[in-house]
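Field log, afternoon session.

UNIT: design team B
ACTIVITY: writing a sequence onto a fixed backbone
BACKBONE:
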C-alpha cells in the first residue's frame, strides 16, 4: 500500500529519529554499564593521601572507558565520624565499589558491612581493618597494602646500626586504634629489641605534624639522653625535626619516619631525617582500584589469607 505524501514524510522522520537515537541509546547503555568506584581516604592535609589521590585520578584518566572515580577524604587523621558519613553517602549514591583507607580499624567495619549488604564491593587499603571485628560481623574484606611491620623494621634496623646497645629511643606512634600504627610500632620495637636498644616511651602523635612535634618535645624534655625518635609516618617526623631543632639537639638526636613524602626529601639529603620507608603512595589506591574492578567482574583477586601484599622499601640519604 502506498502511503499518502504526508504519511511518507512522517515515516521518513520517524526512521531518521530512530537511526539517530540508536547510537545514542547504545552509548547511554555503555555509560550505565561503566562501574563507579569510590575512593575514601584519610586526611587530605597529609601529603601521602594527596599523592594517593593524584595517582588514582591519573590512573582513571588513562582508563576512562573502564570506570568512573569518586574520591573523598577527611579533614584530619582522627575524623572517623566524617569518614563514616562519606561511606553512607556512597551507599546512597549506589557506587559499585568502595576502596577505603579507614581512619579507624574497628569503627568503620559496621558501615562497611552496610555497604556490602547493599551489594557494594569493598576493598581495604593502607590501614588494615581489625580481623576480630570483621569476623564478629561475619564478613571478609580483602586488604591491599604493604607489610607495615616489615617496613618499620627495615627502618629500625638501619637506625640501630647508628646506635649502641643500651641507647634510649622514643617512638611517636600514629593513631593507636589503627592497625598500621600498631604494626609500625611493633616493627620499630622488633628492631630495637634485636639491637638491645631501650625504648623509653611510646606516645601517639595522631599521624599529624603538630601533635608529632608536641610529643617529640615532651620526650626530649623528659629523657635528656634520648638518642633517636622513630616516627610512624613522615608528617610526625617533620614535627620531630622542629622539636629537635628547638631543643638545640640537631645532629645529636636522630629521626626516622615512614612514607617517603616529598616534604622530607631535603631532610633526608642533609641528614635531619636518617631514613624512611616508601610504600609507593601514588600506586596504593591504584592497587586497590584494580582489585575492586576484578571483584566487580567476579574475578579472583589472588589474595593470600585475604591479603594482597604490595611493596615497601627502605629509603636513606641519597648517594
Amino acid at each position: 500500500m502506498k502511503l499518502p505524501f504526508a504519511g511518507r514524510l512522517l515515516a521518513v522522520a520517524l526512521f531518521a529519529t530512530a537511526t539517530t537515537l540508536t547510537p545514542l541509546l547504545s552509548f547511554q547503555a555503555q555509560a550505565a554499564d561503566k562501574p563507579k568506584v569510590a575512593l575514601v581516604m584519610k586526611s587530605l592535609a597529609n601529603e601521602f593521601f594527596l599523592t594517593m589521590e593524584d595517582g588514582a585520578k591519573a590512573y582513571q584518566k588513562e582508563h576512562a572507558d573502564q570506570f568512573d572515580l569518586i574520591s573523598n577524604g577527611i579533614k584530619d587523621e582522627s575524623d572517623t565520624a566524617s569518614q563514616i558519613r562519606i561511606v553512607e553517602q556512597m551507599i546512597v549514591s549506589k557506587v559499585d565499589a568502595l576502596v577505603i583507607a579507614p581512619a579507624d580499624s574497628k569503627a568503620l567495619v559496621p558501615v562497611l558491612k552496610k555497604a556490602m549488604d547493599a551489594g557494594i564491593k569493598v576493598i581495604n587499603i593502607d590501614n588494615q581493618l581489625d580481623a576480630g571485628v570483621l569476623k564478629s560481623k561475619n564478613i571478609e574484606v580483602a586488604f591491599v597494602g604493604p607489610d607495615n611491620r616489615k617496613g618499620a623494621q627495615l627502618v629500625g634496623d638501619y637506625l640501630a646500626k647508628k646506635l649502641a646497645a643500651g641507647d634510649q629511643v622514643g617512638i611517636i606512634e600514629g593513631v593507636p586504634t589503627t592497625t598500621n600504627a600498631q604494626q609500625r610500632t611493633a616493627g620499630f620495637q622488633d628492631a630495637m629489641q634485636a639491637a638491645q636498644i631501650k625504648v623509653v616511651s611510646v606516645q601517639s602523635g595522631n599521624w599529624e605534624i603538630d601533635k608529632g612535634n608536641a610529643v617529640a618535645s615532651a620526650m626530649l624534655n623528659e629523657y635528656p639522653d634520648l638518642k633517636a625518635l622513630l616516627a610512624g609516618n613522615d608528617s610526625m617526623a617533620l614535627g620531630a625535626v622542629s622539636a629537635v631543632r628547638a631543643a638545640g639537639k640537631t645532629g645529636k638526636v636522630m629521626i626516622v619516619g615512614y612514607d617517603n613524602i616529598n616534604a622530607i626529601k631535603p631532610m633526608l639529603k642533609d641528614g635531619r631525617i636518617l631514613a624512611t620507608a616508601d610504600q609507593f603512595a601514588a600506586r596504593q589506591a591504584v592497587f586497590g582500584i584494580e582489585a575492586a574492578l576484578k571483584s566487580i567482574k567476579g574475578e579472583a583477586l589472588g589474595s593470600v589469607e585475604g591479603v594482597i601484599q604490595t611493596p615497601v622499601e627502605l629509603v636513606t640519604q641519597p648517594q
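LOG NOTE: The chain is about 50% helix and 20% strand.
NEXT ACTIVITY: expression trials, pending approval
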